[in-house]
Fold this protein.
Amino acid sequence: MSATDLRPPASPALTTAPAPLLLGWDAVELWVGNARAFAGFLSSAFDFRITAYAGPETGWEDRASYVLEQGDIRFVVTAALTPDSPIAAHVRLHGDGVHDLAFAVPDAGAAFDAAVARGARPLSEPHVVNDDHGGLRLARIAAYGDTGHTFVDRSGYGGAYRPGYATEGLPLPAVAARPVALGAIDHVVANVEEGSLERWVDFYRAVLGFERLRHFDDSQISTEYSALMSTVVWNGAKIVLPINEPAAGRRKSQIQEYLETYRGAGVQHIALATSDIVGAVSSLRQRGLRFLEAPAAYYEDVRQRLGHLDLPWEDLRRLGILVDEEPDGWLLQIFTETLSDRPTLFVEIIQRGGAKGFGAGNFKALFEAIEREQARRGHL
């Protein structure tokens, strides 16, 4: 059975949905080829602090793993130390990418049981991992592609990330540079195969109890060359998961390029929220991070449409930050280039001034910027 298979669901009416149990994000774990290098990149480029480490020094012979934190964001970067490791197999197939999206819950067993009863495929039964700091309760289910969701109950655990991780004698030093001040995970975007969007929307709604928040069709998200469909689901609180699928276009869409390069469905980008995007992007650029560039005419057009907003327009133009307005407010956003040589995972930096959307007014500018990168790679 592949990681995209779903079990026949029980009647949702007979079981409690997991969604109300999801307190927020616990961690995003990436499986990569070189954890030390990737952790060093996240630390130096994004200002993440390395807060814990696991590896041979802590009793783990098959992997090295770094925990990085900033605000309420926790990334875990893990690499294989043996060629027969499932981590090594994952990286051979996908390259560096997101392996797990973990949710904080008050009861990992209850969340797991509810999800499995409603059709989720179990990957790891509820269990407790212990050390001197108490017991961490965990359980895991399959999601799209080779991605999974772990339910994490920390109520009985007072240690670092997990048992087996050390917080002293960390292999990488802190980086002294201007802070970035990222606060939280705003949303995490998936790309799935053409024709499977509704299937995964139904999975999150029927199995996890999420709600449909927004939908964009190919008339709303398209350029001269490519198009996509997107539906946003959320648990009604902090966990927001847009899901994209490619749509027919004149040339290969960015979503299809991702699917072919990543070898299947997976996480396309992670949006990180800040309360000061001008300061954050200034620092990120100073640290050497590269961003997608908006078309030259973008700021003339957006200033005409949204010039009534009280925003630092010259700073936004200078830094390449995109602007959008919705009935409930405005948002500012910018997108990095891909984080690795394969054109797959990238990061969005976002600041919300009341708006709850995703920058629909910027879709065309963003996708044209991505297409310019595709053309440079010969993939458009």
